[in-house]
Amino acid sequence: MLDPALLRGHLDSVAGQLAARGYVLDTAAIESLEARRKAAQMRTQDLQNLRNTRSRAIGMAKGKGEDTSALMAEVAGIGDQLKANEQALAEIQAALSAITLGIPNLTDGSVPQGKDESDNKQVHAWGTPRKFDFVVKDHVELGARHGWLDGEVAAKLSGARFTVLRGELARLHRALAQFMLDLHTQEHGHLECNVPVIVNADSLYGTSQLPKFEDDMFATQLGEQKRYLISTSEISLTNLVRDEIVDAERLPLRLTAHSLCFRAEAGAAGRDTRGMIRQHQFEKVELVTICKPSESWAEHERMTRCAETVLEKLELPYRRVLLCTGDMSFSAAKTYDLEVWLPSQHTYREISSCSNCTDFQARRMQARWRNPETGKPELLHTLNGSGVAVGRALIAVMENYQNADGSITVPSALRSYMGGVERIA
Q1: pTM
Q2: Counting Cβ atoms within 10 Å, is residue 244 exposed (0-12), middle (13-18) or buried (19+)?
Q3: Domains and CATH numbers, the chain
Q4: Catalytic-role residue among 51, 54, 161, 263
Q5: Among the four 214, 263, 401, 408, which has the fewest Cβ within 10 Å?
Q6: Active-site residue, from 192, 312, 350, 378
Q7: Rounded CA gap, 205 and 229, in Å?
Q8: Which pLDDT tens digit goes with each residue over 388-418?
Q9: Could you please report the per-residue DSSP string of 238-266?
Q10: Known catalytic residue at 392
Q11: Is 271 in the active site?
């Protein structure tokens, strides 16, 4: 959530910055509501002062033995007006809150202007795509040949966009997740966490999935209580500090978790529905950093390098892309995407997205740290990134390490997790 002071004092400037993201800010509605809010607050203060004055007059009249019935009736009327005014003020503030909760974060000055992914900027590329001397198969064909990857039986169990993995491919999928967790905890210093995959609405408001993206969330209902399945463990990890004041010496908090993730993918019909590219259920190893504002940009570069290291150790060609203003996620002030090379598509596809959300989520969560220089609580900065998506890493390994006979060479970084197996077939 943006700082309310920006909307009150710099509304036109904020509207201009948001326009670069393709977001049209309803400045007239905000100005109208702000005027009504100020008037209601002034009316409340006037009524409170009047009630206090009349209450003192009642006390003085009683002391003199005078009749106070008229004054008491007036005070009672003032109380009724105050209640009505406070109700009106609450309604105005709720309307303002509904608008502000739907406003995306402001982008950093280093983010390129643009309308969509065609305006993103490649920062660098790593590795050379392999040249094959046979016809390349995609991950669906490679998996189906051995009964490793089965979308049909998954559809029988759950519907479209689910997958059953079997045998050595299921083992390779597990090996990837274990490899990533070990890398991020042992070499990168992240604290491993195991977090709930079902969360309450407050958690989703905190990281901004609600209210804007409710249609993309799977939900559960038990009695009157509604809970949601996480779309990323960023939600659970970041909310660990919701309504907390973190001691400065604990920062930065660098966390990682391997979890199931669930996305309804509302409105994405027809896009990558074949195979494992775009699933309702998938797994990720997530990276989250919670830090002082002065550290967040260095932490953003560090986090992105952590994710890049996964791909480099797997020897998968990739590129880093800086997203433009029109292609960024709702909470992000700046985002790098890592895109891995997929031979079957002869292109790079997203496998990780690393974002600095600055204080946008922290303000919604009231996640703060105590600045030792001032002794006062201040908002934290939060960052998140895929380190990386396990299913898409599996696809990339299958396609980049495939052999002419349909077998798949196991990357050297994963062999210790596969009992020394060098090839699966």
Answers
A1: 0.92
A2: middle
A3: 26-100 (1.10.287.40), 117-424 (3.30.930.10)
A4: 263
A5: 214
A6: 350
A7: 14
A8: 999 999 999 999 999 999 999 999 999 999 9
A9: HGGGTT-EE-GGGPSEEEEEEEEEE---T
A10: yes
A11: no
